[in-house]
Write a structure and sequence with these properties.
By secondary structure, this protein is of the alpha+beta class. It has three domains: about 70 residues; about 55 residues, SH3 type barrels (Roll), CATH 2.30.30.60; about 80 residues, Alpha-Beta Plaits, CATH 3.30.70.100. The chain is about 50% helix and about 20% strand. The strands form two sheets. A five-stranded antiparallel sheet has the order 4-3-2-1-5. A three-stranded antiparallel sheet has the order 6-8-7, with helices on one face. Helix 1 runs antiparallel to helix 2 and helix 6 crosses helix 7. The longest helix has about 40 residues. It starts with 10 loop residues before the first helix and ends with a helix.
Length: about 290
């Protein structure tokens, strides 16, 4: 029988030896190749970071190069196993079409990632508001963008969602505008309230002198006279100063006797008897 032949003459032994050597070589190539690809990707990323490219483009290109190097390694491993590349490419082409149709959302994320890096509506470390979510940009990858929220939450957004929605970049420039709407009573002195608010803003060193702080009557509401209190502040002081102004205005208005009227609603019942008429009817019936 064939299986009783010596090792050199046994076809099963020769097949196992040849295939085993191929598998061993493929595993070795995979291990070494992936490590080399990562080293090359990290080296290119460092070179890009030292170049004139911004951090966003450098990070994105570095990851693209790393993925491309890993794909080349995988193709070399498949070729080492003896798979014909022509047949493999034909199969990959047909499979790529089917996968492309099934993963159109993922491909849309890739295209959106390229648009974000090319058009640069924001960069890494910019403070942005996207889809109603505010955070600082930590990274822009092929499929998704990561933001760090004010409460230190890590927010991950698909790139396709970003390019189809409005993007508000809060970083450009060196200042932001704070506008508070505060309602006071109709019987309170508007000039006094305006003077208190202006004095409070001018006393805080974080408030910029140009443009100058302003206080205007913006609405005569149903229950209150609404004041628009406006000032400008540096980007880094926006949140802290906004909270400080809200608290300071409340305390200063309380000391000056300026009220914050609560909503009121007057209800009248049509056809209800007045108290005097009801009493007279009751007394006459008792007699």
């Amino acid at each position: 029988m064939n299986w009783m032949l010596s090792g050199s003459d046994n076809p099963w032994y020769q097949l196992a030896t040849n295939f085993g050597l191929r598998v061993l070589g493929a595993l070795l190539l995979l291990f070494v190749g992936l490590r080399v690809a990562r080293m090359v990707g990290n080296w290119i990323a460092r070179k890009l970071a030292r170049s004139e490219l911004d951090a966003t483009t450098s990070m994105f290109l570095g990851r693209i190069i790393l993925v491309a190097a890993q794909v080349v390694v995988l193709l070399a491993v498949v070729q080492t196993l003896g798979v014909p590349m022509t047949s493999l490419l034909a199969v990959l082409g047909a499979a790529g079409l089917a996968i492309g149709l099934a993963m159109k959302d993922s491909l849309s994320n890739i295209a959106s990632g390229v648009l974000l890096v090319t058009l640069k509506p924001f960069r890494v470390n910019d403070l942005v508001t996207i889809n109603g979510i505010t955070g600082r940009v930590e990274s822009i990858s092929i499929f998704q963008t990561r933001l760090r929220g004010a409460d230190n939450q890590l927010i991950t957004l698909p790139n396709s969602l970003i390019t189809t929605d409005s993007i508000i970049n809060l970083t450009p420039g060196s200042m932001r505008r704070i506008e508070l709407v505060v309602g006071i009573g109709y019987g309170d002195d508007i000039d006094q309230a305006r003077a208190i608010a202006l004095e409070l803003m001018q006393a805080d060193p974080r408030v910029l002198h140009e443009p100058t702080p302003e206080v205007h009557v913006c609405l005569l509401g149903a229950n209150s006279v609404d004041l628009s209190i406006i000032c400008h502040v540096g980007n880094d002081d926006y949140g802290a100063l906004r909270f400080a102004l809200i608290e300071g205005i409340k305390k200063a208005f309380d000391r000056a006797g300026i009220s914050f009227p609560l909503p009121r609603r007057e209800v009248r019942l049509i056809g209800a008897a007045t108290p005097g008429i009801a009493d007279s009817k009751t007394s006459s019936s008792s007699q």
